[in-house]
Amino acid sequence: MPMISSNPPSGGNKAQQQQQQEEMESSTQESPLNPNAFTFDLPHPVYAMAFSPSPFAVASSCSAVAAASPRLALGSFVEEYGNRVDVVAFDEDALAFRPDPALSFDHPYPPTKLMFHPSPLPPLLASASDSLRLWHLGPETAELRSVLDNSKSSGYCAPLTSFDWNDEEPRRIGTSSIDTTCTIWDVERCAIETQLIAHDKEVYDIAWGQAGVFASVSADGSVRIFDLRDKEHSTIVYESPRPDTPLLRLAWNKVDRCYMATTMMDSNRVVVLDIRSPAAPVAELQRHRASVNAIAWAPQASRHICSAGDDGQALIWELAAAAAAGGSSEAAITAALEGIDPILVYTAGAEINQLQWSAAHHDWVGIAFSNKVQLLRV
Amino acid sequence: MVAPPSTGLQQALQAVVQSVHWTYSLFWQVCPQQGTLVWGDGYYNGGIKTRKTVQPVEVSTEEASLQRSQQLRELFESLSSGEANLPARRPCAALSPEDLTEAEWFYLMCISFSFPPGVGLPGKAFARQQHVWLTRANEVDSKVFSRAILAKTVVCIPLMEGVLELGYTEKVEEDVALIQHAKRFFTDYFDVHTKPALSEQSASNQFASADHALYHQQAPIMHQMNMETHASNQEEDDAHDHNEDYNDDDDDDGDDDDDGDGSSRSELKGMRYGVDVSMHHPAVAAAEEEEASELMQLEMSEDIRVGSVSDCSNNLDVEHMPDGESKKERQDHDFSKNWHFLLEDLGNGFGFQQSLGTQVQDFSSEDAHYSETVSSILRHNMNRWVDASSFSYLVRSHNSAFSMWSCKRDHTVSSQGSSQWLLKSVLLNTRDRHRKLGDGRDGEGGNKLQKCAAQEEVSANHVLAERRRREKLNERFMVLRSLVPFVTKMDKASILGDTIEYIEQLRRRIQDLEGRNRQQTSKRQCGSQVGNCKLDAQRRVGVSADKRKLQVLEGSNGMATTSVHVSMSEADALLELHCPCRDGLLLDIMQTLHELGLEVSSLQCSSINGVFGAEMRSKMKEAYGRRTDIVELKKAIHQIISDH
Predict the structure, then answer these.
(1) One Pfam annotation, family name (chain B) (predicted)?
(2) Is residue A46 a contact partner of residue A29, using CB atoms and an 8 Å limit?
(3) Taking CB atoms and an 8 Å cutoff, what residues of chain B touch A109?
(4) β partners of residue B422
(5) Bridge partners of B614?
(6) How far is CA B502 from the centre of its chain?
(7) Do B98 and A278 count as a contact with CB atoms less than 8 A apart?
(8) Are the Cβ atoms of B446 and A289 closer than 8 angstroms?
(9) Taking the CB of residue B194, how many other CB atoms lie within 10 A of it?
(10) Contact of B13 with B343, CB cutoff 8 Å
């Protein structure tokens, strides 16, 4: 029975599952069957997810979690004004989640992104929806530290699609917005450092490569690199092959900063770019069976990237050195044509909407699908 | 003039490093003007990522290593020579940036370093005139040794007019014997190598042919002159700014507070024209090159020997090679001396692009900016990589949630919704969501292209659908109108109203008829034939009476036997006719209608009891420039009827 092509109705899934379970070494759908995936259920769908930067001592009254435990901030995605951010710690020893309700807070509009301050102190969490907000996750409670509002005299602030916290210059946060601009904030002064009109259309994602260099992707289908030392110029390092196909996500490899990856709308490919050779992608990773929703580079290895999509799979890829070297050899060229295979795969039960790889704990990857968040051990 | 000592130097370096099996050896030369130590020569003996050879023939290891150093040198020059306008040919065996290991990259970077006396390891060695041995170089503060990536052990030995630096990627404890050993290599060569740095530069620059042509146009080169070790990115940033802004003529006077360059620069300018430099001109392709190279040397000679770190390793995608220059020539001693010019080139390169008035300018200046960006990132990359090998592996725990990939896997979740629905909702619907859910703040800015396009599409569909609906309605109203006998007005409301009345009348009539039918059947049963006739007559009378009634009701003209009714709406006409029968009536009517420009589309006629009834629907066309109207048509019809 061919299992690929069409989407069978849910009733037919069971037969498929059984067949596949015989084939594969690990279980497929249900996370309880996979002993190394740990699930946390929430009452609402989750989109934004962030790992805390480094082992954080949780001095909360409700748990005595070890100091070196991964901590997650989870933002809800509800089509309402009132949304919520939950802070959850994961006890690695007990392999259980310890939600921290004292630190959870209400959030206006669903946050499109959450991110912790790159260093553990101060314990700041930034969130973006209609504007950028900084929250202080104090020992007892979470409080709103500042609202970085982009509004000018009109009072209207264009909603933010994403932001990135500069790990080399933690005073800087770059935000991307649907009004085609990227804004660089100085969070210590709570003031705008600079604002650039980055693209012709809405900007969907932004990522820092260096203290003064960032890249952004947009609905106009281009990846552009900006250097704050020279704001007049930007360089297009990639454009989607079909014109005006929006590029939705961008990730810059923080280990080897020559590489970045991006995903397109309705595309199952992850495009890996080398900034040294613009316009020609280093690799196109095309083993997903449905559109890719999220990508994350490995925080400790220079050539590994994880991607997740609507096919419910999270794939870890290793970019071969040949591909990394620019594809000069023949083997690399053929690999570029057919696409390389991932090395690791995990199958969740539903479309995976979010993927984050913990920088502090290299062996944990977090994914979000429907109302669940799972921590996967790599 | 100038003997080629650097070949000897290079050989010495090579010999030294190979004899001790270390990773690299460099010689830092003193630049007389600045009094700083700058790159003299180097030999890289370390790990190589890839080997590219021109010939397929295997070369000996020694030669290969020599080639390697040369290749690195070439790479540096090509990178540093700015975005040449002439895309020059590079030998296919030349290195490209990706081929280098990190250590090699770093070695390359060293070319651009400089140390004032006392600063940095070589600086200290020189100042003290004593060797300095640093064992755990990768662990020390960057102030002491900023280039830790390259080596774990670094030794700086002051020799002659400079400092010999040896580095090794392993940790080696101090060994004076090694130092002596190293020194021995150089005594032979250094006797020759006594020329001041200035005269070394008198060799013409061979490699930047295109750039030379530009040099004579060039305004005084404004260079950031960093007298300090370039250890921080901040300085690099400044240097970048300056390099980029050079054309604006305000860069140097700008924020150079930490460098105090103003005075020294003017000093240099003064020196520029006072220097008498003997030229060494190897064969160059164009005369202009010579001229340009002279000028360049004049400028070069006093200008920065102290390259800022930002000057190096940029324009990674530049393929550059001087015209007519073979690789062999480049390996010449002249070439090896010309590294000084590189620094100038680097700084100039970006500027020069901007000075070009051609269409290439934009392209190259943008590339110049971009390449600076990339180079700063690369540099940064290297600074962060202590041990490259640790980054190659992804450790998979034994109890991993992930399983190995196999090609047979084809299980996917059937996505119920549309593709990327949540992601799209997050990104694409933010504006709507905020508008809907917020305080009613209206959004003005931003790009509405996507939304508008969709809306237009949708509305176009709506328009068409609406039009079709209207047409259908109109048609049906027309039909209804034609069915209902005595509609007076043409508007839809009255049509409907009259239809209602008509239906009620019909119903009453049906009732009457049915009732009469029953009466008559019962009467007939008990009546005679006479009665039948009577009844028949009655019936007939009744019927005709009804008919008459009907006729009266129908006829708007009041005449009992003839009624003509015309109704028109836009281009459609409806004609209802009742009149006594006669031969050829219909034909005449049809002809008349045709003459009047009415095209009959449907016709119903009947002849009952000598009464001709007809109902015609026709479309009106323009005949003789005008259309018929109701009155005219009625007159015509009446005419026909009365004609007979």
Answers:
(1) HLH
(2) no
(3) 433-434, 437-438
(4) none
(5) B577, B605
(6) 71
(7) no
(8) no
(9) 10
(10) no
Residue A219 CB neighbour total at 10 angstroms:
25
* A218: β partners: A203
Contact B121, B166 (CB under 8 A): no
Residue B314: CB atoms within 10 Å = 30
On the question of pLDDT at A69 being above 90, the answer is no
Strands A203-210 and A113-116, how do they pair? Answer: unpaired
Does the pTM surpass 0.90? The reply is no
Bridge partner residues of A164 (DSSP): A174
DSSP string, B416-469: -SSTTHHHHHHHHSHHHHHHHHSSSPPP--S--HHHHHHHHHHHHHHHHHHHHH
Q: Could you give the CA distance from residue A370 to residue A235 in angstroms, rounded to a whole number? A: 37
**Edge-to-edge strands, sheet with A292-297:** A292-297, A304-309, A313-318, A344-347, B403-404
Q: What is the pLDDT of residue A331?
A: 56
Instruction: Specify the 3-state DSSP secondary structure of A136.
Output: strand
B chain contacts of residue A353, beta-carbon cutoff 8 Å: 422-423
Q: Which positions 44-103 of B are in contact with A (Cβ < 8 Å)?
A: 50, 96-99
Token pair belonging to B319: 């393929």
Q: Using an 8 Å CB-CB cutoff, list chain A residues near B361.
A: none
3-state secondary structure B495-523: HHHHHHHHHHHHHHHHHHHHHHHHHHHHH
d(CA B422, CA A349): 16
Q: What digits encode the pLDDT tens for the residues B221-245?
A: 333 333 333 334 444 444 444 444 4
Residue with tokens 């996370």, as numbered in its chain: A31
Q: Which amino acid is at A308?
A: A
**Amino acid (one-letter) located at B570:** E
Average pLDDT, chain B: 62
SS3 of A207-259: EEEECCEEEEEECCCEEEEEECCEEEEEEEEEECCCCCCCEEEEEECCCCCCE
Cα B552 to Cα B558: distance, rounded to the nearest angstrom: 7
Token pair for B38: 């700058």
pLDDT tens digits, A276-326 = 888 788 888 988 999 999 999 998 888 899 999 999 999 999 987 644 444
Q: Would you say residue A145 has pLDDT above 70?
A: yes
Q: What is the pLDDT of residues A320-355, one digit of tens each?
A: 764 444 445 555 565 556 678 889 999 988 899 999
CA angle B6, B7, B10 (to 5 degrees): 80
Confirm if B572 and B617 have CB atoms less than 8 A apart.
yes
Q: B44 forms bridges with which residues in the sheet?
A: B24
Across the interface, of A10, A79, A178, the residue whose CB is closest to B446 is: A178
The answer to whether the beta carbons of residues B80 and B342 sit under 8 Å apart is yes
- H or E segment at B114? strand B114-115
Closest CB to B396 among A80, A349, A378? A378
Contact B445 A159 (CB under 8 A): no
Long-range CB contacts for residues B234-239, cutoff 8 Å, separation at least 24 = B235/B308, B235/B309, B236/B308, B236/B309, B236/B310, B236/B376, B236/B379, B237/A212, B237/A229, B237/B376, B239/B308, B239/B309, B239/B310, B239/B311
Round to whole Å and give the CA distance between B601 and B482. 13
In angstroms, the CA B139 to CA B136 distance is 6
- What is the Cα–Cα distance from B268 to B257, expressed in whole angstroms? 18
pLDDT digits (tens, 9 = 90+) for A244-264: 899 999 999 998 899 999 999
What is d(CA A148, CA A205) in angstroms, rounded to the nearest whole number? 18
Is B406 touching A (CB cutoff 8 A)? yes
Number of H helices, E strands in chain B: 21, 11
Count of A-B CB contacts under 8 Å: 256
